[in-house]
Amino acid sequence: MAAKSPGPSTHFHKWISESFFVLSGQVQLYDGDRWITGGPGDFLYVPVGGLSHRAPRARSTSNRWAETAQKGGKEFGEFLVKHDSFFVDR
Length: 90
Hints:
Blueprint: E1 11-12, E2 18-21, E3 27-30, E4 35-38, E5 43-46, E6 51-54, H1 64-71, H2 73-82, E7 86-87
Antiparallel strand pairs: 1-7, 2-5, 3-4, 3-6
Helix pairs in contact: 1-2
């Protein structure tokens, strides 16, 4: 997730787990009971089916998600299927 980008909204994966090493900013994860927030230096693991939500100012080394989301349309839909991503209202 690039610095100052909105990043993905609340989502889960049916087939893959997900992990984050937070460089800066915050990442929020739902542990089944409550939302927890990880900050710089934290390592967070999301099991299959777990919910994650990127908070403002989080940063990672990849901009691929943001670039594809901006394009939208069929390409973004295919990207979501390929990356096992399902979005939920929070």
